[in-house]
Design brief:
Distance between the termini: 28 Å
Largest sheet: 8 strands, parallel, barrel
Strand content: 5-15%
Oligomer: single chain
Number of helices: 15
Bound molecules: (3S,4R)-3-hydroxy-2-oxopiperidin-4-yl beta-D-xylopyranoside
Strand order of the largest sheet: 1-2-3-4-5-6-8-9
Shape: globular
Radius of gyration: 20 Å
Structural class: alpha/beta
Helix content: 40-55%
Amino acid sequence: MVNAEARSGSRPQLSRRLLLGSALALTACKGRAQAPAMPSGPLPPLRQAAPFSVGAAINVGALDDPAYTGLLLAEFDQVTADWQMKMEVILNPDGGFDFTQPDAVAGFAARHGLRLHGHNLIWYTYRPPAFERLAGDRAAFAAAYRNYILAVAGRYRGQAVGWDVVNEPVAEDGIGYRDCLWRQVLGMEYVARALHDAREAAPDAVLFVNDYNLESNPNKLAGFMRLAEQLLSAGAPLGGLGTQAHLTVDTQPGQVRACIRTLATLGLPIHVSELDVSTRGRRLDFSDPASRLDKQARLVGETAEAFAALPERQRYALTTWGVRDQDSWLRRAPNAGDGSDRPLLFDDAGAPKPAAWAFVAAVGRGS
Ligand code: XIL
């Protein structure tokens, strides 16, 4: 069930002294290549500092770790399953459904009064055997497609406040759209179909298309906006735009702000849906670790400030892709290197990093 407090937007008041103190501490560090000095005193919980929902991708393996759940519940008021609600988990090879894992995530969210964001219904990466078999029969394929969306979105109807209905539809170069099983059989209308089916199954959920590299690749942002405009003008029930925001410390200052502003021009709610800032960067980086945490903090601050500056009705949520550094997917990815990435707002031990302080300071500035 949806957290009434989160829905109504009423939040406990923050200590003004704490906010000012952390904002000043960060401002004082501007222009220095050092990590911002950590202000004294405790960090106010992100969920209380922000005038919007603050989400986290949930690490189900860590749910029996009280240190993890304590931090998650203290800081965040919305969760996204990082894997458990995907088709590759739910859809069996024979075409049947297994809801054990998504139900576990939804149950956790309900027990703790967290908003649940559904992720995701349709994703280009997966070519399930149960659909491959139907690829030669368009009508049967379309019926199974519809049936899957109705079943999954319908199961969490009234609980999931939103869904990433189609994840990552824009091609890597941003010029066209992803080649995938769904498009091969249904054509580009696979996106609008999914939105219509999701609307039927979950009338109150905000329905998103969600993509990445929108801040760093102007072609991709343009392609994403074009798709959104086409969907809206065709009457598809597109309800929101998700920008994953998987950043690196090399992301250029100003890019995230510009991206959020562009996305907002259509007037739809925005979800910063998977924020993390890899400290490994994309280029060889010989800078010291503290300066990388400083860059990370500035990027998180920019993101939070730009998001907070949106009109209230456009602030769906800002979600980080994990809670502590040790839980990040970037530690487990095939190209994780030596596993030393520190992409999130809380360190391995759960202590707030400069990025967490930057977030709190920025949401005060942005709104
Ligand atoms: C990642 C998860 O974090 C991993 O646990 C999983 O193995 C692969 O997917 N963009 C998305 C997310 O939309 O679903 C991805 O999550 C990260 C990139």
